[in-house]
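check this one:
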Amino acid sequence: MRMLCASTLIGEFFVIGFAGLVAMQTSDLSAGTVWAVSATAMVLSVLLCGMLSRPGGVQLGWLLQIGLVLSGFIVPMMFILGVIFGGLWWASVHFGRKIDEAKARFAAQAADAA
């Protein structure tokens, strides 16, 4: 699960950065405000990559997804991108857990066979 979720979060890192560039040009917010929010979200997306195996890591990832969708009020295209990344996050968590379960089963079978 960690690998799939981390891949999604790294993709979000870049999308957040590009959305910050768009927001700086199209919104009434100051550049400092845009980059304070964008940089915080970008750092959070990278830090979450390391926190996925800890309690609450996946839930924090969901909060980041909600924030991504809500950023659509500043950059309207982020509504669409936020929903897309929310779907990718769901798929990463859902299928990542299935992959982890399958790996555990195969490891248990290999241990029994040895």
User: Anything to note?
Assistant: The CA atoms of residues 17 and 39 lie 8 Å apart. The chain has four helices and no strands. The longest helix spans residues 77-113.
